[in-house]
Amino acid sequence: MLKLKPSPIQKVQWQLASDNSISVDIKRDDLLHSVVSGNKWRKLKYLLADAKDKQCSKIITMGGNWSNHLHAVAYAGKELGLKTTGIVRAHAEQALTPTLKDCELWGMELRFTTRKEYVEYREQKAWDFFHNNQPNSYWLSEGGFSELAIKGVMDIADEVDKHYDYIVVACGSGATLCGLAKAFPKSQIIGVAAFSGAEYLRDELTQHLGSNIDNWEIDTKHHCGGFAKTSKDLEDMIEELEQLNSFKLDPVYNGKAFLALQSRLKSGAFSKGKRVLMLHTGGIQGTRCL
Ligand SMILES: Cc1ncc(COP(=O)(O)O)c(C=O)c1O
Protein backbone atom coordinates (compact mmCIF):
# COMPACT_ATOMS: atom_id res chain seq x y z
CA MET A 1 0.00 0.00 0.00
CA LEU A 2 1.08 3.60 -0.51
CA LYS A 3 2.14 5.04 2.85
CA LEU A 4 1.11 8.68 3.22
CA LYS A 5 1.75 11.12 6.05
CA PRO A 6 -1.12 13.09 7.61
CA SER A 7 -1.87 16.29 5.73
CA PRO A 8 -1.31 19.66 7.42
CA ILE A 9 -4.01 22.07 8.60
CA GLN A 10 -3.28 25.71 7.72
CA LYS A 11 -4.94 29.01 8.45
CA VAL A 12 -6.62 30.55 5.40
CA GLN A 13 -5.67 34.19 4.95
CA TRP A 14 -8.88 35.89 3.85
CA GLN A 15 -9.94 39.44 4.62
CA LEU A 16 -13.63 38.60 4.32
CA ALA A 17 -13.30 35.93 7.02
CA SER A 18 -11.37 38.14 9.44
CA ASP A 19 -13.78 41.05 8.84
CA ASN A 20 -16.56 38.71 10.00
CA SER A 21 -14.52 37.32 12.93
CA ILE A 22 -14.70 33.83 11.48
CA SER A 23 -11.59 31.69 11.52
CA VAL A 24 -11.12 29.53 8.45
CA ASP A 25 -8.59 26.68 8.31
CA ILE A 26 -7.88 24.35 5.45
CA LYS A 27 -6.92 20.70 5.64
CA ARG A 28 -4.46 20.24 2.83
CA ASP A 29 -5.37 16.77 1.61
CA ASP A 30 -4.22 18.02 -1.79
CA LEU A 31 -0.70 17.53 -0.39
CA LEU A 32 -1.22 13.86 0.49
CA HIS A 33 0.31 12.64 -2.77
CA SER A 34 1.24 14.14 -6.12
CA VAL A 35 -1.36 12.05 -8.01
CA VAL A 36 -3.55 10.12 -5.59
CA SER A 37 -4.30 13.29 -3.69
CA GLY A 38 -7.20 14.76 -1.77
CA ASN A 39 -10.21 12.61 -1.14
CA LYS A 40 -9.00 10.11 -3.74
CA TRP A 41 -6.54 8.44 -1.41
CA ARG A 42 -8.98 8.61 1.49
CA LYS A 43 -11.65 6.86 -0.56
CA LEU A 44 -9.40 4.32 -2.27
CA LYS A 45 -7.14 3.04 0.46
CA TYR A 46 -9.46 0.46 2.07
CA LEU A 47 -11.03 -0.45 -1.26
CA LEU A 48 -7.68 -1.31 -2.81
CA ALA A 49 -6.63 -3.22 0.30
CA ASP A 50 -9.93 -5.13 0.10
CA ALA A 51 -9.29 -5.94 -3.58
CA LYS A 52 -5.88 -7.35 -2.63
CA ASP A 53 -7.36 -9.33 0.30
CA LYS A 54 -9.92 -10.82 -2.07
CA GLN A 55 -7.07 -11.86 -4.40
CA CYS A 56 -8.40 -9.65 -7.19
CA SER A 57 -5.83 -8.71 -9.80
CA LYS A 58 -7.85 -6.12 -11.70
CA ILE A 59 -9.81 -3.00 -10.73
CA ILE A 60 -12.65 -1.97 -13.05
CA THR A 61 -14.19 1.42 -12.55
CA MET A 62 -15.85 4.32 -14.38
CA GLY A 63 -15.57 8.05 -14.91
CA GLY A 64 -15.67 10.95 -17.33
CA ASN A 65 -13.05 12.29 -19.72
CA TRP A 66 -11.38 14.39 -17.01
CA SER A 67 -12.12 12.17 -14.05
CA ASN A 68 -9.90 12.65 -11.00
CA HIS A 69 -11.12 9.24 -9.85
CA LEU A 70 -9.96 7.38 -12.99
CA HIS A 71 -6.67 9.25 -12.86
CA ALA A 72 -6.05 8.23 -9.24
CA VAL A 73 -7.13 4.61 -9.78
CA ALA A 74 -4.86 4.23 -12.82
CA TYR A 75 -1.86 5.51 -10.88
CA ALA A 76 -2.60 3.56 -7.71
CA GLY A 77 -3.11 0.40 -9.78
CA LYS A 78 0.31 0.83 -11.37
CA GLU A 79 1.93 1.36 -7.96
CA LEU A 80 0.20 -1.60 -6.35
CA GLY A 81 0.61 -4.05 -9.22
CA LEU A 82 -3.11 -4.21 -10.06
CA LYS A 83 -4.44 -4.10 -13.61
CA THR A 84 -7.02 -1.38 -14.21
CA THR A 85 -9.88 -0.83 -16.63
CA GLY A 86 -11.68 2.50 -16.93
CA ILE A 87 -15.17 2.66 -18.42
CA VAL A 88 -15.35 6.14 -19.90
CA ARG A 89 -18.40 8.14 -20.85
CA ALA A 90 -17.08 9.33 -24.23
CA HIS A 91 -16.71 8.33 -27.89
CA ALA A 92 -13.72 6.16 -28.75
CA GLU A 93 -12.99 8.30 -31.79
CA GLN A 94 -12.63 11.49 -29.73
CA ALA A 95 -9.05 12.56 -29.02
CA LEU A 96 -7.91 11.40 -25.58
CA THR A 97 -7.86 14.11 -22.94
CA PRO A 98 -4.58 14.62 -21.02
CA THR A 99 -6.28 12.87 -18.07
CA LEU A 100 -7.02 9.76 -20.14
CA LYS A 101 -3.57 9.86 -21.74
CA ASP A 102 -2.06 9.69 -18.24
CA CYS A 103 -4.39 6.79 -17.40
CA GLU A 104 -3.24 4.89 -20.50
CA LEU A 105 0.39 5.65 -19.76
CA TRP A 106 -0.07 4.09 -16.33
CA GLY A 107 -1.49 0.97 -17.93
CA MET A 108 -5.23 1.51 -17.63
CA GLU A 109 -7.30 -0.15 -20.35
CA LEU A 110 -9.92 2.35 -21.52
CA ARG A 111 -13.36 1.17 -22.58
CA PHE A 112 -15.67 3.77 -24.08
CA THR A 113 -19.37 3.60 -23.49
CA THR A 114 -22.56 5.40 -24.42
CA ARG A 115 -24.33 7.73 -22.00
CA LYS A 116 -27.14 5.17 -21.65
CA GLU A 117 -24.82 2.30 -20.72
CA TYR A 118 -22.91 4.59 -18.39
CA VAL A 119 -26.09 5.37 -16.48
CA GLU A 120 -26.72 1.63 -16.13
CA TYR A 121 -23.21 1.03 -14.76
CA ARG A 122 -23.85 3.77 -12.23
CA GLU A 123 -26.52 1.60 -10.61
CA GLN A 124 -24.05 -1.19 -9.94
CA LYS A 125 -22.57 -1.09 -6.46
CA ALA A 126 -21.43 -4.65 -5.67
CA TRP A 127 -17.67 -5.24 -5.83
CA ASP A 128 -18.11 -8.52 -7.74
CA PHE A 129 -20.34 -7.03 -10.45
CA PHE A 130 -17.99 -8.20 -13.25
CA HIS A 131 -17.40 -11.69 -11.91
CA ASN A 132 -19.40 -13.52 -14.57
CA ASN A 133 -16.84 -12.79 -17.24
CA GLN A 134 -13.89 -11.49 -15.19
CA PRO A 135 -13.64 -13.56 -12.01
CA ASN A 136 -10.52 -11.84 -10.62
CA SER A 137 -11.89 -8.34 -10.97
CA TYR A 138 -12.98 -5.82 -8.34
CA TRP A 139 -15.63 -3.28 -9.33
CA LEU A 140 -15.51 0.26 -8.00
CA SER A 141 -18.67 2.23 -8.62
CA GLU A 142 -18.54 5.86 -9.77
CA GLY A 143 -16.35 7.99 -7.49
CA GLY A 144 -15.73 4.84 -5.42
CA PHE A 145 -18.92 5.39 -3.36
CA SER A 146 -19.00 2.58 -0.77
CA GLU A 147 -18.80 1.87 2.95
CA LEU A 148 -15.05 1.34 2.62
CA ALA A 149 -14.60 4.70 0.91
CA ILE A 150 -16.57 6.38 3.69
CA LYS A 151 -14.47 4.55 6.31
CA GLY A 152 -11.33 5.92 4.63
CA VAL A 153 -12.66 9.48 4.81
CA MET A 154 -13.53 8.99 8.50
CA ASP A 155 -9.83 8.53 9.25
CA ILE A 156 -9.45 12.29 8.77
CA ALA A 157 -10.79 12.67 12.32
CA ASP A 158 -7.54 11.13 13.66
CA GLU A 159 -5.69 14.09 12.15
CA VAL A 160 -7.90 16.91 13.46
CA ASP A 161 -7.61 17.76 17.13
CA LYS A 162 -9.53 21.07 17.31
CA HIS A 163 -13.28 21.50 17.19
CA TYR A 164 -14.74 23.09 14.05
CA ASP A 165 -18.31 24.36 13.98
CA TYR A 166 -18.53 23.85 10.22
CA ILE A 167 -16.65 21.66 7.78
CA VAL A 168 -17.08 22.56 4.12
CA VAL A 169 -16.35 20.13 1.30
CA ALA A 170 -17.04 19.85 -2.43
CA CYS A 171 -19.57 17.19 -3.27
CA GLY A 172 -19.91 14.76 -6.20
CA SER A 173 -21.15 11.31 -5.18
CA GLY A 174 -21.34 12.48 -1.55
CA ALA A 175 -19.03 9.77 -0.17
CA THR A 176 -16.63 12.33 1.29
CA LEU A 177 -19.50 14.23 2.90
CA CYS A 178 -20.84 10.99 4.44
CA GLY A 179 -17.43 10.18 5.93
CA LEU A 180 -17.16 13.64 7.46
CA ALA A 181 -20.72 13.57 8.82
CA LYS A 182 -20.01 10.28 10.57
CA ALA A 183 -16.56 11.20 11.83
CA PHE A 184 -17.38 14.70 13.12
CA PRO A 185 -20.78 14.36 14.85
CA LYS A 186 -20.38 17.72 16.64
CA SER A 187 -19.69 19.72 13.44
CA GLN A 188 -22.14 20.79 10.76
CA ILE A 189 -20.91 19.46 7.40
CA ILE A 190 -21.70 21.59 4.35
CA GLY A 191 -21.35 19.68 1.08
CA VAL A 192 -21.22 21.96 -1.94
CA ALA A 193 -22.49 20.30 -5.11
CA ALA A 194 -20.09 20.76 -8.02
CA PHE A 195 -22.85 20.19 -10.57
CA SER A 196 -26.41 21.33 -11.21
CA GLY A 197 -29.48 19.25 -10.32
CA ALA A 198 -27.84 17.77 -7.22
CA GLU A 199 -31.01 18.04 -5.10
CA TYR A 200 -31.52 14.26 -5.39
CA LEU A 201 -28.39 13.79 -3.24
CA ARG A 202 -30.36 14.91 -0.17
CA ASP A 203 -32.63 11.84 -0.38
CA GLU A 204 -29.90 9.51 -1.52
CA LEU A 205 -27.54 10.43 1.32
CA THR A 206 -30.34 10.47 3.90
CA GLN A 207 -31.13 6.91 2.88
CA HIS A 208 -27.52 6.00 3.16
CA LEU A 209 -26.70 7.72 6.45
CA GLY A 210 -30.04 7.16 8.13
CA SER A 211 -32.08 9.87 9.83
CA ASN A 212 -30.00 9.77 13.06
CA ILE A 213 -27.07 11.38 11.32
CA ASP A 214 -28.38 14.82 10.47
CA ASN A 215 -25.37 17.12 10.93
CA TRP A 216 -25.04 17.75 7.21
CA GLU A 217 -26.55 19.73 4.38
CA ILE A 218 -26.05 20.06 0.63
CA ASP A 219 -25.58 23.47 -0.93
CA THR A 220 -26.92 23.25 -4.47
CA LYS A 221 -26.53 26.92 -5.36
CA HIS A 222 -22.86 27.33 -6.15
CA HIS A 223 -22.25 25.12 -9.19
CA CYS A 224 -21.90 28.19 -11.47
CA GLY A 225 -24.19 26.75 -14.12
CA GLY A 226 -23.03 23.14 -14.06
CA PHE A 227 -20.12 20.77 -13.79
CA ALA A 228 -16.79 22.38 -14.78
CA LYS A 229 -18.53 25.69 -15.50
CA THR A 230 -17.01 28.79 -13.96
CA SER A 231 -18.04 32.38 -13.33
CA LYS A 232 -16.25 35.69 -12.95
CA ASP A 233 -17.02 35.66 -9.21
CA LEU A 234 -15.46 32.24 -8.86
CA GLU A 235 -12.37 33.17 -10.84
CA ASP A 236 -11.86 36.45 -8.93
CA MET A 237 -12.25 34.73 -5.57
CA ILE A 238 -9.76 31.98 -6.51
CA GLU A 239 -7.27 34.59 -7.67
CA GLU A 240 -7.61 36.54 -4.43
CA LEU A 241 -7.19 33.44 -2.26
CA GLU A 242 -4.27 32.11 -4.26
CA GLN A 243 -2.43 35.41 -3.93
CA LEU A 244 -2.69 35.33 -0.14
CA ASN A 245 -2.23 31.62 0.48
CA SER A 246 0.08 28.81 -0.59
CA PHE A 247 -2.66 26.52 -1.99
CA LYS A 248 -4.10 26.29 -5.49
CA LEU A 249 -7.83 25.76 -5.96
CA ASP A 250 -9.46 23.90 -8.83
CA PRO A 251 -12.57 25.75 -10.01
CA VAL A 252 -14.34 22.41 -10.64
CA TYR A 253 -14.68 21.28 -7.02
CA ASN A 254 -12.75 23.19 -4.35
CA GLY A 255 -13.30 26.63 -5.86
CA LYS A 256 -17.05 26.04 -5.61
CA ALA A 257 -16.77 24.95 -1.99
CA PHE A 258 -15.01 28.23 -1.23
CA LEU A 259 -17.59 30.15 -3.26
CA ALA A 260 -20.35 28.75 -1.06
CA LEU A 261 -18.38 29.73 2.02
CA GLN A 262 -17.82 33.20 0.58
CA SER A 263 -21.52 33.76 0.09
CA ARG A 264 -22.26 32.59 3.67
CA LEU A 265 -19.60 34.94 5.02
CA LYS A 266 -21.05 37.81 2.98
CA SER A 267 -24.58 37.16 4.14
CA GLY A 268 -23.55 36.84 7.79
CA ALA A 269 -24.80 33.24 7.98
CA PHE A 270 -22.20 32.34 10.63
CA SER A 271 -22.12 34.06 14.01
CA LYS A 272 -18.89 35.73 15.14
CA GLY A 273 -16.17 33.49 16.53
CA LYS A 274 -17.26 30.37 14.64
CA ARG A 275 -14.56 28.08 13.29
CA VAL A 276 -14.65 26.66 9.79
CA LEU A 277 -12.55 23.88 8.28
CA MET A 278 -12.32 23.57 4.50
CA LEU A 279 -11.28 20.12 3.27
CA HIS A 280 -9.08 20.52 0.19
CA THR A 281 -9.96 17.48 -1.89
CA GLY A 282 -7.22 17.88 -4.51
CA GLY A 283 -8.34 17.72 -8.13
CA ILE A 284 -5.76 20.07 -9.60
CA GLN A 285 -5.15 17.71 -12.56
CA GLY A 286 -8.79 18.22 -13.57
CA THR A 287 -8.20 21.92 -14.21
CA ARG A 288 -6.64 20.93 -17.52
CA CYS A 289 -10.21 20.76 -18.83
CA LEU A 290 -10.66 24.53 -18.51
C1 LIG B 1 -11.33 16.98 -6.38
C2 LIG B 1 -12.63 16.37 -5.98
N1 LIG B 1 -13.28 16.91 -4.93
C3 LIG B 1 -14.45 16.43 -4.51
C4 LIG B 1 -15.06 15.36 -5.16
C5 LIG B 1 -16.37 14.86 -4.66
O1 LIG B 1 -16.18 13.74 -3.87
P1 LIG B 1 -17.40 12.77 -3.54
O2 LIG B 1 -17.67 12.00 -4.80
O3 LIG B 1 -16.88 11.89 -2.46
O4 LIG B 1 -18.53 13.61 -3.14
C6 LIG B 1 -14.42 14.77 -6.25
C7 LIG B 1 -15.03 13.62 -6.96
O5 LIG B 1 -14.80 12.51 -6.59
C8 LIG B 1 -13.17 15.30 -6.68
O6 LIG B 1 -12.53 14.78 -7.73
UniProtKB/TrEMBL annotation:
Tryptophan synthase beta chain-like PALP domain sequence ranges: 18-282
Annotated protein name in UniProt: Pyridoxal-5'-phosphate-dependent protein subunit beta
Residue numbers of N6-(pyridoxal phosphate)lysine PTMs: K40
A GO molecular-function descriptor: D-cysteine desulfhydrase activity
Entry superkingdom: Bacteria
Family as reported in the entry's similarity comment: Belongs to the ACC deaminase/D-cysteine desulfhydrase family.
Coiled coil: none
Keywords: Pyridoxal phosphate
Cofactor(s) of this protein: pyridoxal 5'-phosphate
Pfam families found in the cross-reference section: PALP
Gene3D superfamilies in the cross-refs: 3.40.50.1100
Classification lineage: Bacteria, Pseudomonadati, Pseudomonadota, Gammaproteobacteria, Kangiellales
Active-site residues, Swiss-Prot/TrEMBL: S67 (nucleophile)
Entry-linked InterPro entries: ACCD_DCysDesulf, TrpB-like_PALP, TrpB-like_PALP_sf
